[in-house]
Specification:
By secondary structure, the protein is mainly alpha-helical. About 40% of the residues lie in helices and about 5% in strands. A 4-stranded antiparallel sheet has the order 1-4-3-2. It holds the Pfam family Fungal_trans.
Amino acid sequence: MEHRRRYMSKTQRACDGCRTRKSACQIDVAPPCRLCRAHGQPCEFTSRARRKKSPKNDSMPPPMLVSSPQMALPVISPDIGPPTDSSFPHPNEEHLEYPSPQPGQAMFEDLFLSLYGSPTPQGTARSLDNLQDATAQLCGLTGDMDPFVLQHYKFDANSEFAFSKLTIRQVQQTEVPVQFLLSKQELTIESRAEVELSALEPTDLNAIVPPESGDRLIKLFFRFIQPQFPVLCENAPPNPRDAPIHLLAAIYCIVQPFTAFDDHLCVELAYTPPSAQTLLNMAWRSLNHSLPQPTISSIQTTIILLLRLPTNALVLDSAWKWTLLGIAVSMAHTLGLHLDPQTWNLPQSEIILRRRLSWLIYILDKWLAFSFGRPTHISLDDWLVVELTDLDLVNGGQGVLAFPVEFSKLTTILDSTLSSL
């Protein structure tokens, strides 16, 4: 038969942990009590309660428990310091009343422990920034891994939940939980291989993609990518014979899924397509060389790389894309793309292209921030082009690009939502 006792019993006093917390100490049959079991800590009875001496004069009024500004602070003698034990009891502890546990509380605590495990014991914090076999990335509030859902996982004694090659580490369990995604070393190696600047990579893009094929690939870009994301200028398309390598390699890489729609490329590249990994590495290497003196083509390259689908769906590229977006924003500031050039003394084609690129960086910042669960890079206080007009979207005499107009309105709603979080 289960034995119950009243809290603060004279024969069975509260444990050290419950005394420290001023909580009801509930022991079913034998220690540990429910609170110590829930927190995974030892249930000990080492500290002694201080007994309050009875007043000599029964007629004296009880001492006041409410402090006031006029009350003198206790004087601590130099040779008698304050108690250092955190479990030191309150002087009037035996006169305090605590509420009894509710009828269903014990059953709920047992059910919670069986489903979600015990919280990590105090004093067992593990490093997050010096991992030997994994890397850590924050699980943002709007990312695909919802922290409010993750907090209900059954974490182990290290506050971790492992699955496949990934692990969720919980570092804070409060009103707003905080978790990190730990990726094992093999995934990290694969992710780095995508953007590795290897000296063994080929440097002659024409040897991989002849200029004739390059012309066709650029036409596929204008057919399938440009109507949704107007990165290039229709009146001055890049020339495969003299355009920057990083821009051409990025274009060739992103349009590879559409080569089946070209009568010539569907045969020429059917058996020996250019390596998407090689094209990405060439674009990334050439882009790095342009960073000290960025140009409009540098901005166009970063936008195309940010739009590119990952070559391996199982490899995390969020950290690299988020860093690349930061580089794009920094280059845009350098080139003045955060300003509105409508009244500048420039050719109209350059004004339109600048406004397009400024808008594309703005929408990528908002949608990637939403996708990755990160704070945005761009503030409306210092970024002037956040919507495009019909004049900005005239598609070389083929009418106005409709998708960017609607997407622009949707991005404005998203930005307002992210700002309110």
